[in-house]
Amino acid sequence: MKGTSSSNNILFFIVRNIFLLLLLTCHGANFAFAAAPVGGRGGKWDLLSSNIGITAMHMQLLNNDRVVIYDRTDFGASNISLPYGKCRYDQNDTSLKVDCSAHSVEYDVASNTIRPLMVQTDVWCSSGSISPDGSLVQTGGFNDGEKVVRVFKPCNGATSAICDWQEIPGALIQRRWYATNHILPDGRQIVIGGRRTFNYEFIPKTSWAHNAYSLPFLVQTHVPGVENNLYPFVFLNVDGNLFIFANNRAILFDYTKNVVVKNYSEIPDGDPRNYPSTGSAVLLPLNLQAQDQEVEAEVLVCGGAPKGSFISAQNHSTFLGALNTCGRVRITDPDPKWTMETMPLARTMGDMVTLPNGHVLIINGAAKGTGGWENGRDPVLEPVIYRPDNPLGSRFEVQNSSPIPRMYHSTAVLLRDGRVLVGGSNPHVYYNFTGVNFPTELRLEAFSPSYLDSSFDYLRPQIISRAPQYTIGYGQHVPIWFTVPGVVDTNLVKVTMVAPGFNTHSFTMNQRLLVLASENMRQVGIKDYQINVVTPNNAKLAPPGYYMFFVVHQTIPSVGIWVKIQ
Ligand SMILES: *[C@@H]1O[C@H](CO)[C@@H](O)[C@H](O)[C@H]1NC(C)=O
Ligand SMILES: *[C@@H]1O[C@H](CO)[C@@H](O)[C@H](O)[C@H]1NC(C)=O
Ligand SMILES: *[C@@H]1O[C@H](CO)[C@@H](O)[C@H](O)[C@H]1NC(C)=O
Ligand SMILES: *[C@@H]1O[C@H](CO)[C@@H](O)[C@H](O)[C@H]1NC(C)=O
Ligand SMILES: *[C@@H]1O[C@H](CO)[C@@H](O)[C@H](O)[C@H]1NC(C)=O
């Protein structure tokens, strides 16, 4: 927030406060008991659309609260036409040489509507990342799309109904199919691995980083005929190195020197966690509250399928039980050790979504089989919430179930209002709606964690902001004003900063939540408060770009606001 916008805010705040005061004088103050949400089954499901036209295989939330969704161009005709009577003529397409249907859509959260988009080349099983200017930069795919980069810029106003993907052919040196991307502190992204691609490269290219650089770790963790190391779980550590988990172990990697800084021990059960075993992983919340201490980072890896599961499903139609374990490791420790935990439900192809309050939602997937065409059985319809700060043994809580199986090629992303958008599921080579197990799924749902229950409205902060978006720098002191209807426990207020991640194949690239240091929390009106937060010190903690800021009171989050850090 620049000086002028701050003083505007203060002015706005004062005017608004007088208005509120008048309102409250008329209605009287309402008192409520401050109580933390209690245990038990929670959460609620809503069907948002019975047909978005495509299957949501990849999803990315943009800073205009629209979600870019795409599947693959060689699925055949989808259920939504390309805009303006366009058709795609592609001699290389493995399904339809002329396809007038769309394989990408834009979902507008506010209006709950869909708009078709056009991708030219095959985006199947690709990767991506938001760049610092808010554009989605998508990389690779299959066939004629394997070396293509595609950019989607968020659009508003006059262009909002017509803006579309822009393709950059040959922008990648190597084919990238099942790769993982991560945004870097300098604003570029790294693209790591992919099928039969044991190296990494950067987008955009710079003079000192214009090649593909080999990564032997991807060869070492590769199982011939099975893989088990695709879509590696990659997180930017607080020291600027990358934590890369593939198959059943991890390294800490200095991408600037192409050097393995640390080998982590194998996850204790030794079972594979990456595609097609398809567990998931998150970087747990980075807590910046103790400003004088070094920031610690922890990673949680959950679910997947045991060794042999893929061949068993693929070659023998025998679907083995999925893994019910999670491994948690403090990646910044000098001598890191895995701690194993048991989930209430076994799960392969689950997604892990970091919620605004720092809890982790484990959602989607199956209890038997693996990732890959037709390889899953027994959908797990109940999400589970994991509370990282609870004592070991009391962290998981099973949530209410959805009626819709979300098998292979399903997705989940956090929205700014705290809901989780859930879509996709297509374990078939084409769109198949009848005569198959788990028909191609075109329905879009939202899961509302119990923090959205109206019974918690009295605890819920609402950020008072006039400008829709703020720009902030690193290491700045920034005031945030908010209001809460009920009694506020000032010790239980925190501000979190969440990066919007790119979700596909049970992994969310760039998923990151920071709990900001805060000071001088004080009441400034009848129900109004000011909290001063300190933004992260450097871009290793929070790479540049757009984040959602949430005020969280007793685990109940506000609606977020978009903030750009640079
Ligand atoms: C979508 O599916 C419905 C019902 O099956 C069908 O009537 C409609 O023509 C389809 N639309 C497109 C664009 O394929
Ligand atoms: C088909 O692929 C070849 C090689 O990958 C490429 O040269 C050609 O331009 C592609 N054709 C179309 C219509 O995309
Ligand atoms: C990590 O392990 C590899 C072999 O798997 C070894 O070559 C390398 O020296 C190790 N690096 C460190 C930093 O321990
Ligand atoms: C599984 O089936 C594939 C394709 O039919 C075959 O190439 C492979 O050798 C089989 N693997 C095993 C371990 O039987
Ligand atoms: C799936 O859809 C494709 C393309 O429409 C069709 O050829 C195939 O027979 C379908 N498979 C089943 C099992 O119905």
Automatic annotation (TrEMBL):
Classification via CDD domains = E_set_GO_C
Q: Can you give the residue ranges of the Glyoxal oxidase N-terminal domain?
A: 57-451
Q: Which SUPFAM superfamilies match?
A: E set domains, Galactose oxidase, central domain
As given in the record, the signal peptide range reads 1-28
What terms describe the molecular function in GO for this protein? galactose oxidase activity
Coiled-coil intervals in this record?
Answer: none
Under the heading Gene3D superfamilies, the entry gives: Galactose oxidase/kelch, beta-propeller, Immunoglobulins
* Location of this chain's protein in the cell: Secreted
User: What's a single GO CC term here?
Assistant: plant-type cell wall
Identify the residues that the record assigns to the Galactose oxidase-like Early set domain, covering every copy: 460-565
The UniProt record lists the keyword Secreted:
yes
Write out the entry's keywords from A to Z. Oxidoreductase, Secreted, Signal
**InterPro entries recorded for this chain?**
Gal_Oxase/kelch_b-propeller (IPR011043), Gal_Oxidase_central_sf (IPR037293), Glyoxal_oxidase_N (IPR009880), GO-like_E_set (IPR015202), Ig-like_fold (IPR013783), Ig_E-set (IPR014756)
Give a GO biological-process term. cell-cell adhesion
Q: What is this protein called?
A: Aldehyde oxidase GLOX
